[in-house]
Structures are given as structure tokens and as C-alpha cells.
Amino acid sequence: MSRFDKDHYKDGEIFNGFDYDLQVWVKNGIVQICGHLSPECGCNQRKYAELPVARARILEALETKRIAEDHLKESKGEL
């Protein structure tokens, strides 16, 4: 996706532009498909492609929480 203008927001969420927290391009509130050649690239753009950005943020927060909980369990010897 090419940059021609500033980011546009709607109801406090990025609507058109780049979401710097998620590192994804958003068009009409939807995360766009990445342009990487490998389907296993692992980028957030591919992970959240075609989802509303608000939903992608929730999923990212849940994933971050799960990783943090796993690290805590590992440090306590529970894993």
C-alpha cells in the first residue's frame, strides 16, 4: 500500500492508513493483506488480514497476555 495522505481515524480507530501499534496497513477499517511472497512470513499484516482493525487489536492483546502468562509460568517452573 502506498502512502499518499495522512492517516484517517473514525471513532478513535485508524480507518485508513498505517496502524503503528499493530504494524499493519488499514483501508476502510479493515487490515489489508500483506505483500510478502512467503505465506509463512509471520507478520501481523498476514495474521490479521481482512479483519476489522478493532478486532485485530483485541486478538493482539489476548495473544500478548497469553505470552506474558506463559513466561510467568515458565519462570515459576510451572511449564
Question: Characteristics of this structure?
Answer:
79 residues; alpha+beta; four-stranded antiparallel beta sheet
What is the topological layout?
Layout: E1 8-10, E2 13-19, E3 24-27, E4 30-31, H1 44-47, H2 53-75
Antiparallel strand pairs: 1-2, 2-3, 3-4
Mind explaining what this structure looks like?
With 79 residues, this protein is of the alpha+beta class. It has one domain (8-75). The chain has helices at residues 44-47, 53-75, and strands at residues 8-10, 13-19, 24-27, 30-31. The protein has a four-stranded antiparallel beta sheet with strand order 1-2-3-4, with helices on one face. A hairpin with a 2-residue loop joins strand 3 (24-27) and strand 4. The chain is globular. The protein starts with 7 loop residues before the first strand and ends with a helix. The mean pLDDT is 90.
Count the E strands.
4
- State the low-pLDDT regions, or none: none
Overall outline: globular
**Number of structurally distinct domains:** 1
Oligomer: single chain
What Rg is obtained from the alpha carbons, in whole angstroms?
15 Å
Q: What structural class is derived from the secondary structure elements?
A: alpha+beta
